[in-house]
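Quick log. Single chain, no ligands specified.
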Amino acid sequence: AAQVLSALDILVGDQEGDLHLDSPVSRSEFVKMAVSASPAGAGVGAASTSPYPDVPKSHWAAGYVQAGVQAGLLTGYLDGTFRPENTITLAEGVTVVLRLLGYENSDFAGAYPSGQMAKYRDLKLDRGVKAQQNSPMTRRDCLYPFITCSPPPPSPRASPTSPFWVTASPLPERLIWLP
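-> predicted structure:
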């Protein structure tokens, strides 16, 4: 699984190729993974503007954050910041992955993140994930929502105008899912 994501440039290792699978993941790292897993991922370059006050356009992930915002995959915090160096919690990561699959906030019942977490479990995206709802995800935890389950059904809101619409498969073509 890790080798597939590494080959697709979704999960990148250090100079020796070590993926540091037990290391926590920052919000900027996770956004890079999610955007890289999307059809738009290959075309991400430098950001044209600063997507958030705490993500200047010179930040290494600014282009990915900008692309993720434009695609509707992510939002910042109520105070207008993104907090790129904060670790991403499972609830935050699940929300991004579900948006990648075409789900919107209105698709979930109850207060955040109970509906998102229920859908995550229903789609069996939780296989192998050790993180709990409000705890930080590790790089190993990030592998599983992208790669370890059978293809889940698309969101009922997915449409041909969505940047993540696909016709032959319920998942974006760059996502690789193994049964």
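The chain is about 30% helix and 0% strand.
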